[in-house]
Task: structure prediction
Amino acid sequence: MPLYRSLLLALLAGALNILAFAPFGLWPLQILSLTVVLALALRAGNVRRSALVGWAYGFGWTVCGVYWLYISMHDFGGMAAPIAALAVILLALFLGAYAALAFGLSAWLRRRWQAAPTAVALLVFPALWTLAEWLRGWVFTGLPWVSSGYAHTASPLAGYAPLLGVYGLAWISALIAGCLSLFPVRKTPLALALLLLAAGPGLKTIDWTSPAGQPITVRLLQGNVAQEMKFAREQISASLTLYRDLISAAPADLIATPETAIPLFSQQLPPDYLPQLAAFAQRSGSHLAIGIPVSDDSRYYANSVIGIAPNLAAAPYRYDKHHLVPFGEFIPTGFRWFVDLMHIPLGDFSSGPAVQPPFAVKDQWLLPNICYEDLFGEEIAGQLAASHFAGAPVATMLLNVSNIAWFGDTIALPQHLQISQMRALETGRPMLRATNTGTTAVIDPQGVVTAQLQPYRRGTLAATVQGMQGMTPYILAGNAAILLLAALALLAGWLASRKNRSNSA
Result:
C-alpha cells in the first residue's frame, strides 16, 4: 500500500478511536483501531514508515480528543482563532509522537533483534505502547487525557483496573490488538484475546475493599456560573451569595462546592462570610468542603479546598492542589509570550505537598483532589498508600472539585467524568464530583455513576454514600507493577528472538 494511503487510513482510525471514549462508549473501537494500525505497521517493513503511521494515528486520536482546548484559548481567552487552532494542532502532533515512538521502536527492535511478527505483536509492541502511554502521563508534567485505558471503564477489561491501573488496561488492550493483527496468518493468538476479555468480568467479582463505618449524606453543589462571568467584578458578589444560599439551604453530613466556587482569597471576603458558614455547619451538624484560593503570604497562594467541621474546636482542614495545570496555574519557563496572547486570570500558583491528610466527616475520611489532578491515578493511589504505611487515617472516599467550564459544553465534560470513574475502579472507593457546570456526580467503587446532575443547570445533587476501606493491588504498587510487566515482556521478546536466531543458524 502506498505510504499516503497508509497515513490516511491511520489518521481515520485515530479519529474514529475517540468514539471509544465517553460520551460515545464504543470501547471495541479502541482495540479495533489499534489493530488496524498495528497491522499496517507490521507490513510497513521499515522504521520510518512505521513511526509515521503511528504518528498519524496518534494525531487523529488526540486532536479529536482535545479539540475543546480551542474553546478555552479562543472563546474565553480571546486568543486569535488561527493561533488557537494552531496551538491545538501542535499539541496533538506532540502527543501523537508518543504513538510514533511506540510503533517506530517496535519496528526498530524487530529489525535489530530479527524478531518474528508474533513476538513483536504479542510482546514488544504491547510493552512499548504501555511505556509510551505512561511517558505521556508524566513528561512535562503529563497530559494523559483520553489515554487508551480510559476507553474501558465499562468494558470487560475494567476488572483489571484495581490490579494494574489505567496503563495496565492500555497494555491488555494493546495485547488483544496484537492477537487480532496476527489473525490472518495465525489463529492461535485469538484464544489469548478471548481469554483476556473473559477474565475481566471475573476479576470484577473480587471485593478488594469493604464498607467502612456508616454511610453519610452528601450534597454536591453545581452553581453553573458562566465562565466569562466567573471572575468579573460584578459577578463575584452574586457568586458569594449564591454559594452561601446553596450551602445553607439544607443540612448534610458533607456539603461540597466546586473548585474556586469562592473566587476570592479569604482575606478579601466580607469579614462575616466564613463565620456565617461556620455557624451553619455548627448549627446543622454539616461538614463543608469549599473550593477557594488561599494565600498565606505574598509568595504562596494555592488552589485549595478548605474543610469546616461542625465542631469548631477541631483543627482547620485544608488541601492545596499539588499537580498544577501548565499555562492555567503555572507558566512554564519560556512560555510567558504564549500566556500573554490570552486574557485568562492565570497565575503562578504554589504546589501543595504530594501527600496530604484526608478530611474527617463523621466516621468517614474524605480525600479531595482538584480538577485536573484526578488524571493522575498514581498520585491519588500514592496518597492512600502513604497514609496506610504510615499508620495514619486512610481516605474511605474521594472528592473531585472542578471547574471545566473553560471548555464549554463539549465532550470534555463526560471525558472528565470517565477519568473519575477510573479512579474509583483503581482505588475501590466512591468518587464524589462537585463541579461548576458539570458533570456533578456520585460514582460507586465499581466505577458506575449512580447519580448525576444535568450539565449547565444550577442544582444540588443529594445522595447517601458508603465509604470503603482496604487496599487494592494498584494502591499498593501504583504503576510499578505494569512497568515491571512491560519490562519483562520486552525481555521475553528479546529472549524469544535470540532463540529464534539460534534455531535458524
Q: What stands out?
A: The mean pLDDT is 93.
